[in-house]
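Researcher: Quick one. three chains, 1149 residues in total.
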Amino acid sequence: MVKRYSVWIAAPVLLIVLPQIFDSGFAITMMSEMCIAIIFALSYNMLLGQGGMLSFGHAVFYGFGGFISIHAINLVTDDIIVIPLELIPLVGGIAGFFFAILLGYISTKKAGTTFALISLGLVELVVACVLLFPSFFGGEEGVSGDRMLDYSITGIGFGKGVEVFYLIAFWLMVATALMYLQTQTPLGRMANAVRDNPERTPFVGYNIHLVRFFQFALSGFFAGIAGGLLAINYEIVNSEMIGALASGHVLLMTYIGGVGHFFGPILGAVLYTFLHLTLVNITMAGQLYLGVLFIIIILWAPNGMAGILMVHQPVWRAGLFKELLPTYLMALGAGLVTFFGALILVEVNYHLSLSIEPDKPMQLFGVEFLANSWPPWLFSIALMAAGYFMLRPIIRKIGLKWDELTQVMQGGK
Amino acid sequence: MEFYVISLLNSLVFGMLLFMLSSGLTLIFGMMGVLNFAHASFYMLGAYLGYQVSVFIGFWPALVIAPILVGIIGAGIERYGLRTVHKYGHVAELLFTFGLAFMIEELILLIWGRVALNYQVPASLDFTIFKLFESDFPAYRVFMLVVSVTMFVALYLMLTRTRTGIIIQAALTHAEGVGMLGHNVPRVFMIVFGGGSALAGLAGVIGGNYLVTSPSMAILLGPIVFVVIVVGGMGSLTGALIASLLIAALQTFAVGYDYSLVDLLTLFNIELGSEPLFPDLWRIKIENTGPLLPYLLMVVMLIFRPKGIMGERES
Amino acid sequence: MKLKSLLLFLVGAFVFSIFSTAMAASGTIKIAYIDPLSGGFGDVGDAGQKHFQFMADKIKAEGGFLGGMNFEIVPFDNKISAKESLVQLKHAIDQGIRFITQGNGSSVAGALIEAVKKHNRRNPDKTVLYFNYAAVTPAFTQSKCDFWHFRFDAHVDMKIAAITDAIKDTPSIKKVYLLNQDYVFGHAVSAAAKKMLKVKRPDIKIVGDTFHPILKVKDFSPYVAKIRKSGAQAVITGNWGADMSLLGKGVNESGLKASFYTFYAGGLGTPSTMGKAMDGLRQVTEWHDNLSVEENRPFDQKFRKAYNDKFSNGGKAPWYYGRIRTMMEMLVKAFNKAGSTDPKAVAYALEGMEHTTYYGKVVMGRKDHQLLQPLYISRFTKTDGKMVKYDRENTGYGPTTEFKTDALDTATPSSCKMKRP
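Model:
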């Protein structure tokens, strides 16, 4: 019993402790954004993972949630309505729900490519509307507000980043729990059935269009909550939040994390947000690394990070993981050598072609060298070659080890 | 009158450019079921390679060499990338091309830098071919038209009159059956993907100097190509042609009408108050809706006729 | 256990590299440069960074300020996104940076003004000062003005004032066409032009006031046809980037003979994509390539050449932001005058400051923090080796001054009500 609920106890503790350890403004902002990304990615997985609906326009509901929330904040500031700040995300959620109902009925008639293309068309339509309706979307500058409202349930002022983080963390727990419970409901289960076999599902007596539609509307609700939280966090909402780029981000993070498991998008959102926000200040090639990561996942790990973890669950249960560990460590070492070699090559090339002073020495891991001299190139190619030749036998070894373990486990039964 | 004639000609030129871009995509989709997000990136690659080759040996060789290079790159990507993810289904294939588009843009940044290229129309085609009313009509537009029409005719003949073309046509609808007959379907896929990429590359070579060659050119043109193939019907070449011309005309002609809803109301002698509900809605003129119309058309089409104008089956 | 030590070394090196870049060298004032360094606007942000870096190096070579202190430009990539700019602002503040500069995108500038204002109110002991070098929405120094924001670029109304003054003195212009991008900036250009032309030349007819979708139009020939049909002798446009390039190309192809008064015909990357379509276009800027030739200032020609030799990538991206030099020179003066590195003191020192730049006298508005500087309308023609000595971006076309407005004449009535700490 304790084991089953341990995650739901550990997570809040972690969320309370984390900002006390990492207390810089940037760290708080990053953790807040991670929490928001988790809600957003989980809501996206309600479509892609649970319902098999690939959407290129999920940010529409996220964006509408954000816009309506910031307008609500401004209305409260102007004393027109009274909503405590803690409940603003709910306003965003309702907005997302409303727009998902509005757009969802027609777009969920079909799944597959038709659905994907409708979502693509809808997101472009909404983006075109942003500039046509400046009094709602605020044009290019967007709409800004001040989250320090006079109304608050808890009495917290929300001037500081950490106070906002705790609000976001609270909503994260609520939303995650609700979305998890939703997977256990008949609707959540039927969404899986519709994903796997839309031909047979009607025979059980369910209308597949309505199942998709309800799933879509709920997913819009949670995306709206995430949007409302983002509005509170940054106190500004503009067109970039509603467009194809934001939709692309959530697709990438969900897929990298893994669509097949509930916790996949959580991993993906944390990793993606971390890389997205930190790489940009460390290297110019951040976009490239993210792209490579994404392609590697698609080519060799279609179930994402969660998929890789879950493959090991039976081995772990059988207590055989320690058998795998040495080869894994070797693979990690060889992989790092290869990666390090490739990294030098990429960084040298970016320095030469995109930095402002290519002739000046560049710095990598505290070592200073000239990019247009031969040693870094030679070193990098040597590392990559060495890593490649080390990796090949190790990967074969891992394969053999797996076969061995599978036999042991089957034999054990 | 002048406006209509000029707009008609210009929408024809732009429409044929769009068609060149979308013909490859519609064939690839029709046959392999892959919605290729990187298609516009091949167009960008074509423009950059076209520029590079024309710097070295001139525009005319570039017109042939650059599309071939793009075609080879496309075929390689199909062989070593797409085919690997094929077993994971269409979503994985689509996401692969999505990631590919990212990577191609990064590579172009890395090789050619961030600044837009100084890729200009070749001097031999840089003159006024005739005067229309008072406007000059540049020869390069006529050239673009000639290239795209030639390409359409060649492609049409290739698909209907040659053996390869007939196999491709058959594989469009009955891939498994064609495989049963002993044809190498994966190789046909590779040829179609490479050929489609080469067509996009050709569009890049002749469109890059006519428009602007910069790292964002793929993103700017990408979504509209999807509109074309959806409206035209996926897998249908004729449909893509009709849709390209239709969308080009839609965008070109919308410019000419500066009526708004207020004008409509005045027609019925209704006056709008000084502070109406939805103040923006009334202000919008038809000429401002240019970017909106294609997507509206696409969504409406998907809802009411998912197979498009000429398509034979739903996706 | 070799593997383990290797791993430890790698992790250590990684952490070290992050921290070593974060550690500050003493005696430097860091300026966070928050602009796009990747993505579609990466080229523009990249050029801006080079301008600032060049000025920082120059100031260092000349002995710095406050007894040997120097500027260090710390780049932060915001991908021209308002949200990521706010994250980067937090990042910069964490590193102890108290001065930021940004220029691209009014959406970003608006978000930064708000964020800096809120930050300074919530953290009065860690105030931040923001220098805006290119975002031109008039409201930033009018209704939305703020003590912590200084603008070194002329805003839309000021630039339109210069353009309409030039049109006022050109009696042959009887009909004017306005063509702009359909968003806040384009609407501001159109509104200002209509208002000012009505006052300065009531006889002029506005024969067209068109807004086109931003960065979506591939072919401007229908718009060119519309302009021709209207019979306009002059066109005013705020278009930038691809919208300017494609418009220029369309005009050139069709042989339309109207005078084009633009904001950004010479903007970074635009001339090289336009090529010979540059011929005859006009731009309004505070500085242009041949100003130092016209005014016979060899030293400033050397300055331009020194930058271009170092950073222009073979002339492809030459010196453009004349005002960045002004801004950095004024900052040196302000730090010296304030005698401290406290943002508040520097802000007070900047207010009302007068300075003689390489393009004339300028003064920083005391009430609204808007820099008043001369504006030049210049026309692009083929270089002739004499007065049109330098071209832009290797196109063979360079600007010559056609009209000049003095700094004080660019002042527009301001509605700024600033709260001072």
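Chain A touches chain B through 41 residues (CB under 8 Å).
Researcher: Thanks, that's what I needed.
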